[in-house]
């Protein structure tokens, strides 16, 4: 295994390879979540007697697309994350924020410059919120068990 | 990733015959005491560190196509097939777009038409490949679990055939059979490639 000085997650693979993993993981998440979501939607929106057909067609039509959208977002985010890490040579929340903004901007590239700018900002904000919540949770989890209960002194 | 377990050399020869430990010296087998008999990984030669290797504890953890469990296989397989499908579909769309447009069109219109063609073909084939691999991995994982952890080519082939049958399950028996055969053949090709590329993964 390559020698790295990262303080990041050691359960994940090193950088170029992890992009494939993230693509697939995000795709699977989107496709499975989409199957659940659109089967409920297809069931509710179909008339009686055609409910299961409605479920099937809604899932077949929409779940793969949602999976693809999730996969593109996650994979592109991971690719940008790797690129930003290798350029900045640090691991901090800014990596995720920068790559979130870049991903948002890139995926909106066909909509024109204004669209790119808006999605760049939105992507950065979303990832900043996610990172902020992560840091806050981490701090909360670490600080919570800081007061150990001392045993009662035994008096004779 | 090594954890230092102990740096003390195992005393095998010096501890004998000094009379300090009657429990050891009184036995006949003391002279033939062998630490390997206690544990197959015991240190037998002098000053050597003992390491606990965390990485290679699982089956098939090394090699080019390493497997570290169901979820890793699932996401790597799906990701690779999705990217492959996206690339192949995007290329097909590019060719189609180049053919359907002429060079007399304005550059802006032409590039737009070509991009439309790419984004119509690429995601469709990518999504299809991704969904099929996802289903295949779930079926394969189920088959492996039913067989008690046994994961071989026969199980993969069966998983491919079942995935193909599921894919066209709403269209009737004949398309089901065709897609089932097709996917089983693809799986066979993958298994063949795996043995060729990473023979060290085989038992």
What does this structure look like?
- The complex is a heterodimer of chains A (156) and B (203).
- Chain A is extended and about 80 Å long.
- Helices cover 74% and strands 0% of the residues of chain A.
- Chain A has helices spanning 15-45, 51-88, 93-107, 113-143.
- Chain A is mainly alpha-helical.
- Chain B has a two-stranded antiparallel sheet.
- Residues 1-17 and 56-61 of chain B have low confidence and may be disordered.
- By secondary structure, chain B is mainly alpha-helical.
- Chain B has a domain at 69-130.
- Helix content of chain B is 59%, strand content 4%.
- At the A-B interface, helix 1 and helix 2 of A face helix 3 and helix 4 of B.
Defining key terms:
heterodimer, A: 156 residues, mainly alpha, 4 helices, 74% helix, 0% strand, disordered N terminus, B: 203 residues, two-stranded antiparallel ribbon, 6 helices, 2 strands, transmembrane helix (chain B), membrane (chain B)
Can you lay out the helices and strands and say which pair or pack?
The complex is a heterodimer of chains A (156) and B (203).
Chain A: H1 15-45, H2 51-88, H3 93-107, H4 113-143
Chain B: E1 2-6, H1 22-25, H2 35-38, E2 50-53, H3 70-100, H4 107-146, H5 153-167, H6 173-197
Antiparallel strand pairs in B: 1-2
InterPro entries (chain B): Tim23-like
Region (Disordered) (chain B): 1-31
Subcellular location (chain B): Membrane
